[in-house]
Every structure is written in structure tokens, then in C-alpha cells.
Amino acid sequence: MNDPNLCQHLQAITEVKLSDEQVCEECIKHNQTWFHLRTCQSCGVTLCCDQSVNQHMTKHYHANKHPVIASAQPGERWLWCYPDEEFVEY
């Protein structure tokens, strides 16, 4: 992202990672369901959002401190930075 007004984590994103599969990798392991999906921009894992019962992506952030996620929902084009609580559409 070439916007000097964005936080350093969002500025560091040069290419948005998205998953080819539309599943929460953790929910699948435990035969659970999810609401929406998010993809970690550090490691590429796709997990469920905070509206899902298990909130796997937020748990992933707290465990790994990977700062930026992208919506993995079709038609949505945005990024969220957890530590800076910053949102940007792309």
C-alpha cells in the first residue's frame, strides 16, 4: 500500500494474499461452522472472523502477532491491522 497515512503494517503489504479454498482451516479440523473468512497477510492461513463462534483469526493474531488480515469474502477488498486498529480498502 503506497499511502504514507497508513500504519507501517499496512504500508508493508505489497501483494494481498488470498486463499483458493473458502474454508476456515481450524473449523474444518473440528467439524465446526464459520460465518466469514479472513486471510493472514503474514503466513497466508485462512480462518474465521469474529462473528464466528470460535473467532479463529483473532486467536491466531494473539498467538502469533501477525498484524494484518484481508477479507477472504468474495466481493470484499479490505485489510485490517490488529495492533493499529486500522482499516483500508484496496
TrEMBL record:
PROSITE patterns: ZF_UBP, ZINC_FINGER_C2H2_1. It holds the Pfam family zf-UBP. It comes from Mucilaginibacter pankratovii. Residues 5-90 form the UBP-type domain. This is UBP-type zinc finger domain-containing protein. InterPro entries: Znf_C2H2_type, Znf_RING/FYVE/PHD, Znf_UBP.
